[in-house]
Each structure stands twice: as C-alpha cells, then as structure tokens.
Amino acid sequence: MTRFEDLSNEIFYEIFDYLDDIYVSKTFSDLNYRFYQLIHQCCLPVKVYLSYESVENVDNHIPNILAAFKHRLQSLRVSDCFFLEKFHFNSSLIRLQALYFEGIQYSSLVSTLLTCTQLPSLYYLTFNCVENVQCPDKVYSLIFSLPVLKFCQLSLNSMDEGYEFVFYDFAISPIERLIINSKCSVKNLMELVSFAPNLSHLSCEISNSLLFSDIPLVNENLTNLSLKFDGVSFDEVEWFIKNLSSPIQTFTISVKHDRAFLNSNRWQRILTQQLPLLRKFMLEYYDRRDDSLDDDVIKQFQSSFWTEKQCFFVQQYYIDKHSTSWRRLYSTKPYKWKTYQFNEKSCSTSESGVNLAYEVDLHHYQSIPYRFLRANRLILSQGNPLHLNEIFSHFSCRQLTELIMSDERLRLENLFSLITHLPNLKNLTIHPNNLILILPQTEIRRVVFPQNHISKITISNRSSIQEIQIVQRLCPFLQMLDVEVDTEQIESIIRILLLQRINRQNSLSTLCFRESQFLLAEKLKKSIKRDHCFIYYFDQKIFLWLF
After folding, report:
1. For 246-355, where are the E strands, in sequence order?
2. What residues form DSSP beta bridges with 348?
3. For the chain, N or C: smaller number of CB within 10 Å?
4. Do residues 161 and 185 make contact, with C-beta atoms less than 8 angstroms apart?
5. Which residues have a Cβ under 8 Å from the Cβ of 58 and sit 6 or more positions away?
C-alpha cells in the first residue's frame, strides 16, 4: 500500500471519527466518487463542531452541508453563535440529540430555544450566556418546554439576584439532571424543581438574597443534590435542609466564612434527623487563612459517627491567583475528590494516611502527609528541586502513567530521575527549561538517557528544533508530539521528522503544532506529499498523521 486512497473504507471511517464532519465533507467530498459515497451515502451519525475558524473558512458551505446531513446530525457544538442566525432547527432533524452553545448572546439563545421545541430527539442541552439577563425566567420557561430533554447544564447570570421568576407559563418538564452554573435564589429554585417531577440530580449556587421562603423543596425522585452557598449562615442552611422533602441519598455542600459550619455535632444532628436516607455526604468549607482558626477543629470530625460513614476530613492551605491565603476543610474518601492539590501544609485524619485522588498537583515537595495509591496523573507545579526525590515514597510509582512538569526550575537531570522512578510513564508534558542541564558545561550529546516507554510528549511553551531533537533522543518510542514553534520553522521540522519516519528512524505517527494559522495548513497540504501524511486544521492547531 503506497497511497492514502488505498486504505479500506473501515479505516477511513475510523479516521473520520476523529475529525469534524464539516471539515471532512469540505475536504473529501469532491475528491472522487468513492469519497462522496463514503461521506453522503452512509447511515453513521454526524457530530459537528462550529468554531469561529470553521465558520470563517467554510461559511458558504455550512447550510448545504448541514442540509445534506440533517437526517444524520446527532450533535452540534457551536462557539460562533452568529451562525445561529443562518440556521433554523426544525422537526426534520430527527436524530439531533445534543446541543452545545458556547458564549451565546441572550437574543440568539431565546430565538434558538423557541425553534428547539420542534426537535423530537433533543435530550441534552448545555450553554453559557455571555450577557447578564434581565428576565432569566423566560429562558428557563423555554428550557422546560423542550419535550424530551433529560439533561441541561447552563450558565445564566441575572442582572438582579433578587429577581423573582414568573411561573404562570411554565410546562411540566421531563428533565432529570439540571446543573445551574450561576446563582439562583432559593425561592426560584424551589419553584423550578416543582415543575420537574422526574428530577434526580440537581446542582446550583444559591444566592444570598431572599433565602428564606415558605415553599418547601418537594420532589419524590431527587436523590442527588449539590449546592454552593456564599455569604449564607449555618442557620439559613439548616433551614433549607429542613425544607427538603426529597429522598436525598448524595448531598454535596460548599460553604464559606461562617465558622459555625465547623460544628461537627450540629452536622451529625442535621444529617441524622433531616436526611435519614443519606448515603454519601461531602462537605467543603472555605475560610481566609488570615482569620484565626484553631487547627484542632478538625478533631471534631473524628468521632465514631464519621468513621462509621467512612467519611474523613482534610485541612488544607493554599494561595489563590489574587494572592489571597485560604484555609479549606473538606471531606475525602470514600467519596474521593478526583483531584488533590498539595500546597505548603495540610493534615489528614485518615488513620491509614491514604488519599484516593487520581490526579495530584504538588506545589511543595516536602512533608507530604499522604500516600496516593490510586494516582495515575502527577503534576509538579512548584517546589524545591533538591527535595524532589522525597515524593516517590508517597506514590505507587508503577501506577503513574502521566507526568506534567509545570515547574520551570526542574532540569534535565531531575527529569531523568523522575523517568527512572516511574517505569510505566506514557504521557509527559514538559517546559523547555526542563531540557536544560544543571551543569551547562556538560555536552548533551554525551549524556546517557534513561530507558522508558513514553509515547506522547507535550512541550508547553514555544520550543526549537534542538529541543525537539533532545525529546526524540529521550523517548525512542515516541508516537505523538505536541509543540508550539515559530511559524517559519514548521515546514522544515515536518520534513525532517517525515524523512526520519520514512527511513524508520522514529516511531512518530501524530504531530500537533499549536497556535498555527489556517493559511499555513493550506500551504502545507500543497507542498507536502499526501502519500506520506494527512494534514488537518482545527482550533488554531495543525495536526499531521504520518504513515
């Protein structure tokens, strides 16, 4: 097999599955009759992502392409919402199940939702509105009128947090999962829930306005509840829980500032009396570290009540992007947080000293109090390189398969040590500074690189051909390389790597050049033979598949 066109139909369908269908149609439909048939005469579902770049480059083709795909269109993701002015949803889109709108204007959102009521299969909707809305109840009313909607995740900020919804034209909704990534008053939330009798999962941030209400939250199917409170007292939260008339089994709550939330006995009483069916409880409390807080407060949560529930608590300190110091108290296993960030100090009440996070982000390499038995992704953000070797005893090193080195102070010798201790490492992200030797007088060509089986490398900042060559020496089994380089170097780098691939001097199969221009991708398609690679442009990235 010497030509791309000689591949079987099945392989082409697998390749197309990784690409945007709009791009596939524009690129391949007019090549020959075989490709036209492959794209337009099959019954496979179509998933389309319309970004600003894709709309700009195929603007005249989009209406025709989507019209041809209308019976197969399964999902549509739109980040350039001006496109919505040219496209109307109707009942002919019989297979359209999921819609994603990124950064949509209020007027476009309302007009689009009005036409979405005609979609017979739409069960998944997610959007974020970029404007503060004067009457958010109008949007909720349209969402609740969608006939088969099961899942909705939305961000819709109101101009006035105290605005009261008008519910006279609300329909009963079949929605089962509702995630509101914006503030909502308790009164409005409780009214909304009453119009969704099948709701089983609810997540929302409660505004601090009009908290108290005479309306109870009643829903016979609501079992999973996740709430964030900001500027709300424990008395108000307790009142809210007492007004829950639902069989809550999983309850996640995030609160701030009111230290009354650290009263363990009060939590025990509330959970026992008000939530008798509760199986999982996750508490997250934030407070400014500058405020005095006795470190022994965590001992209140070590009673047999919490032990029997297998609920343990961790106290953590960190500094946010605004240089504000915070103290965080949160419950951990067995309802594990997927990620864990270790800063300068933390303590755990777990007797085994085990943390079950899958991703660990270290901002300090000393005095780590836990063992991370399940971690498979390690991020090194900041720390003293002299203490780097102290981290290995806290991990099951053979289980770590991905390493992200964000710490620019780590050098090539540190990377060698990490690779040696992590024998099953597959994915590696590095900064160009991580490829510099501690002893600059040492010649890089004389350095002995450790054995490894790393197959994917990402260089996080702009890099050079010399750094790419070091990466190739470091990882002889490298299959995917993700980099950002100077535009004028891209073509020469591709030709070097492609020649190595042809001569079997490397194992590369995929290249990604970030922050690239569409016109460059078009130029490369003309200057590089298609017999040796396939070039694809998406989201300011140039992808190459080598064969």
Report:
1. 250-256, 280-288, 312-319, 325-332, 339-342, 346-348, 354-355
2. 314
3. N
4. yes
5. 22, 23, 26, 65
pLDDT tens digits for range 247-293: 999 999 998 888 888 889 999 999 999 999 988 888 888 887 655 55
Tokens for 33, please give them: 């009759």
Query: Tokens 């933390």 sit at which residue?
Result: 346
Alpha-carbon distance 331 to 197, whole Å?
30
- How far lies 257's CA from each of 230, 284, 345, in Å? 8, 11, 20
Question: β-strands 280-288, 325-332: how paired?
Answer: antiparallel
Query: 524-541: string of b/e by CB count within 10 Å (b at 16+)?
Result: bbeebeeebbebbbbeeb
How many C-beta neighbours within 10 Å does residue 161 have? 15
* Per-residue model confidence as pLDDT tens digits over 371-422: 888 899 999 998 888 889 889 988 989 999 999 999 999 999 999 999 999 9
Query: Do 408 and 434 touch, CB atoms closer than 8 A?
Result: yes
Beta bridge partners of 405: 380
Average pLDDT over every residue of 159-177: 85
Our CA dihedral for 137, 139, 144, 146, rounded to 10 degrees, sits at 160
> In this structure, what DSSP letter does residue 130 have?
S
